[in-house]
Amino acid sequence: MSLAQLLYGGALAALLASIIKYYYAKKRRKKIEAPKYRMMKDDDD
Known about the structure:
There is one protein chain. It is rod-shaped and about 55 Å long. It is mostly helical. It starts with a helix and ends with a helix. It has one domain (2-44). Helix content is 84%, strand content 0%.
């Protein structure tokens, strides 16, 4: 039973790490950062 829980926990940790890696990939950086800069620009007007 504890081996199954260990494998399940490892799978969840791997899934979380892959989601974080995908979200913060360099290819997605402009898409992620664009709204922040748009909001800051609106405040300056």
